[in-house]
Amino acid sequence: MCKTNDVIDRLGLTGIEEPNGGHDYYHYIASFPIKFWYLTGETLQTFGEVVVDMRMSIIFHDRTYRRNRVRRRIRVQRLNITNRLLLVFIWLRRYLRMQTLAMMFKVDVTYVSKIIQEIVPLLLEKYSRQVVWPTLEECRGWLGHGKKFPSCVGIIDATTHPIWPPSQRQAMFYRGDKKKHFMSSHVIVTPDEMIVNCSAAFPGHLNDTNGFNMMPRIGPQCALDLLLAAILFLTTVILPILL
Q1: Which of 79, 133, 172, 216 is least surrounded, with the fewest CB atoms within 10 Å of its CB?
Q2: Would you kindly state where each structural domain of the chain is located, as residue ranges?
Q3: How many CA atoms lie within 13 A of 116 on its CB side?
Q4: pLDDT truncated to tens, each residue of the chain (243 aa)?
């Protein structure tokens, strides 16, 4: 019983309740900025900006959903917009089990699944437009601006994300060296730290090179239109064929 109470206190499962039955987890976690960043990858300020940006899109989606289901029972949202976005960000960042998220926000697993299925496409629609592949002229303009690599015009970061064992194709995601299952993502950023491309959900057993080769084609859609990091770090000349 003691251990159960410790888990409840650590996750913040006691406190403010939402009017429709959910748990106002944001009210609790906002008091711990470091824990908030660990769970979401965002600061309180940047997450607040996302809430402001997404509010109207989510409200419009909720109203459209109600109109389309006028003859059925209207679904009452048990979590407000802030907590729904928080739930999705925690899921994207930490990939927790839906049962764990349901316990944290005091809702059922089905509702957690619906939130994720509804909010993720809205986030993609809103922010994917801000990720724009640069032109060749813009890439040339970045030469000499990198702090650690002046001749670099792009940086590729491959990151692994631990996940629970999937229900299918477990071997594709298993890393023998770490004895865990992973997904990997590849992010390309400019020398001024702006994201210009992001590809995710690669099987964790792939090494960086194989994951790189699986990234979708970008740029002018040529055979070698991806940034070739190993060459760009070693040369001060941009080869058009590489962009």
Answers
A1: 216
A2: 4-128, 136-233
A3: 19
A4: 444 444 444 554 444 545 455 688 999 999 999 999 989 989 999 999 999 999 998 888 877 765 555 444 545 567 889 999 999 999 888 878 888 899 999 898 899 989 998 998 898 888 877 777 777 777 777 777 777 777 777 777 777 777 777 777 788 888 778 788 887 887 878 777 777 777 777 777 777 677 777 776 665 555 445 544 444 444 434 333 333
Place of tokens 């640069």: 134
* Location of structure tokens 């002229």: 137
What are the start-end ranges of the H helices in the chain? 2-11, 25-29, 33-40, 44-68, 81-94, 98-105, 109-127, 136-141, 170-173, 208-213, 229-232
Model pTM score: 0.65
